[in-house]
TrEMBL record:
One of its GO terms (molecular function) is manganese ion binding. Residues 148-245 form the Mandelate racemase/muconate lactonizing enzyme C-terminal domain. PROSITE patterns: MR_MLE_2 (PS00909). Its cofactor is Mn(2+). It comes from Lacicoccus alkaliphilus DSM 16010. Keywords: Aromatic hydrocarbons catabolism, Isomerase, Manganese, Metal-binding. This is Muconate cycloisomerase. The keyword Plastid does not apply. InterPro entries: Chloromuconate_cycloisomerase (IPR013370), Enolase-like_C_sf (IPR036849), Enolase-like_N (IPR029017), Enolase_C-like (IPR029065), Mandel_Rmase/mucon_lact_enz_CS (IPR018110), Mandelate_racemase_C (IPR013342), Mandelate_racemase_N_dom (IPR013341). It holds the Pfam family MR_MLE_N. Pathway: Aromatic compound metabolism.
């Protein structure tokens, strides 16, 4: 193999517009801010990673500005002259010098793995166990902020055989109105689909206990992060109280936080997201402890564009069981893409690409058009 050693690391902040406003409890997305990392080896080959963030600092504490600054100053220098196939060793070394910064670590590890796989001309999933699934169930998030529009959207998705799992973003405004909104959607499309809700930390324990009862009676199948991320005890009490599954999302970030949630049973399912865990290797470890404890696993998203979505698809294809399917629909919400490749969905499932690396060919004109 010609020169495999790392020569250069570049990062870009990109603002990509979405097709329609996407309303969450804490923010409404009109453009998504993402970070793209490109690692080049001495022969000119490139590996590419992506992490996406939601609503500046309103969703989580990693902002694109901080991710880029911390990669450029504190992480990138450790990569120069290293061989990307030793991504495990490189990330262990980065971990010794850089605390936290899970999104920054994730985007770099993704680009390292992509480059290592491209150097060997193999799909990236071969480097972490190989593919179990050729396709995975794919949820869509109904979050237009308007009940009638959400129903219309769900009907269209069912008709096109794109999605038959719908996650409803609630938690914005009055909790009673939130639950009535869910009730109308369940009435319209609940017979042909599975409905889940994501509260994104917006309720307190008292409101949650009242509203979850109503949601459970309607036939909703999963409640995502009803309480603030810090409230492990409240999540544990809700899990004990209800039969319906309580999914921990914002509260499961690092391996250590997730271990605590699993040990204390502060939920009974976890949402995986390579960005929030600090990369592919950490995501696989978290899936392992969840599996060992009998927790349900959900293939989550930060609403990545085609780059990060293909990376999540590749990782998830190597994890044995997704009790709740996946929601790696990001590219379908964007108006445009940064790669030549598109997401492929058939018969309600995302198809896992078998191309070299993570299967992303960057469109540099688009990258330069959308970069900040
Ligand atoms: C979240 O909290 O799950 C995932 C899908 C979606 O619509 O929002 C994200 C974030
Ligand atoms: Mg969530």
């Amino acid at each position: 193999m010609d020169n495999v050693y790392i020569d250069e690391v570049e990062t870009f902040i990109v603002d990509l517009p979405v097709k329609r406003p996407h309303q969450l409890a804490m923010t409404t997305i009109t453009t998504q801010a993402i970070v793209i990392a490109i690692i080049k080896d001495k022969s000119g080959r490139t590996g590419v990673g992506e992490v996406a963030t939601i609503g500046g600092a309103s969703y989580g504490d990693s902002t694109v500005e901080a991710i880029k600054a911390n990669v450029d100053k504190y992480i990138a220098p450790h990569l120069i002259d290293q061989s990307p196939i030793r991504f495990s060793k490189i990330m262990a070394m980065v971990g010794k010098h850089v605390r936290g910064n899970l999104f920054a670590k994730a985007v770099i590890e993704m680009a390292l793995i992509d480059l290592a796989a491209k150097q060997r001309e193999i799909p990236a999933y071969q480097l972490f166990g190989g593919k179990i699934h050729d396709s995975l169930p794919l949820a869509w998030t109904l979050a237009s902020g308007d009940t009638a529009k959400d129903i219309e959207e769900a009907e269209e998705m069912l008709h096109k055989k794109r999605h038959n799992i719908f996650k409803l973003k609630i938690g914005h405004g009055d909790p009673g109105a939130n639950v009535r909104h869910v009730g109308e959607i369940v009435k319209a499309v609940g017979g042909q689909s599975r409905i889940t809700v994501d509260i994104n930390q917006a309720w307190d324990e008292y409101i949650a206990a009242r509203q979850i009862r109503a949601l459970e009676e309607m036939g909703v199948s999963m409640i995502e992060q009803p309480l603030p991320a810090w409230n492990y005890e409240g999540m544990k009490r809700l899990t004990e109280k209800f039969d319906i599954s309580i999914l921990a999302d914002e509260s499961t970030t690092s391996l250590h936080d997730t271990y605590r949630i699993i040990k204390e049973r502060a939920g009974d399912a976890v949402a995986l997201k390579p960005a929030k865990h600090g990369g592919v290797l950490e995501t696989k470890k978290i899936a392992g402890i969840a599996e060992g404890a009998g927790f349900g696993i959900y293939g989550g998203t930060m609403i990545e564009s085609t780059v990060g979505n293909a990376i999540a698809a590749s990782v998830y294809s190597t994890i044995s069981e997704f009790k709740f399917g996946t929601e790696i629909f990001g590219p379908l919400l964007y108006r445009d893409r940064l790669t030549l490749e598109e997401i492929k969905v058939e018969n309600f499932e995302i198809q896992i690409p078998d191309d070299i690396g993570f299967g992303n060919t960057l469109d540099y004109d688009k990258l330069h058009h959308y970069k900040r």
